[in-house]
Amino acid sequence: MLNLPYFTPYYNSPMAAIVTDQNFDSEVLKSKVPVMVDFFADWCGPCKMIAPLVEELAGDYEGKAKIVSLNVDDSMDSAQKYGVMSIPTLIFFKNGKEVERLMGLQQKEVLKEKLNSL
User: Fold this and answer.
1) Whole-prediction pTM
2) pLDDT tens digits in sequence order for the chain, 118 residues long
3) Furthest-apart CA pair in the chain: how many Å?
């Protein structure tokens, strides 16, 4: 594996928590702060490219919003429940409800704008 920032595996992320089918409700739907869920897969090139941005946002929004990642290969039920058909898909939740959805590689400013509007 190349040692480039955009090849950083999600499971080594120091800031963005990993959620699964088992803890999705408690970590996302019952969160007291807005949540951005990054639906990804380890084999997805664009997902690897957005990984450092997801980690950055997790640090930038600590205490204001929760930034988490969900591996669609490991947690297929949640991906199917929310109709995730392509990755990366970023779904924003507030008060347990989906309020926004973005697909594909996104710029940091776009994501910050969405998070700030929640």
Assistant:
1) 0.87
2) 333 344 344 444 457 899 999 999 999 999 999 999 999 999 999 999 999 999 999 999 999 999 999 999 999 999 999 999 999 999 999 999 999 999 999 999 999 999 999 9
3) 39
User: What residues are labeled active site?
Assistant: 44, 47
Where helices occur in the chain by DSSP H, the ranges are 24, 45-60, 76-81, 108-116
* Residues paired with 36 in a beta bridge: 67, 92
Tokens of 89: 């898909």
Tell the residue number behind the tokens 């039920």, with chain if given. Answer: 77
Domains and CATH numbers, the chain: 15-116 (3.40.30.10)
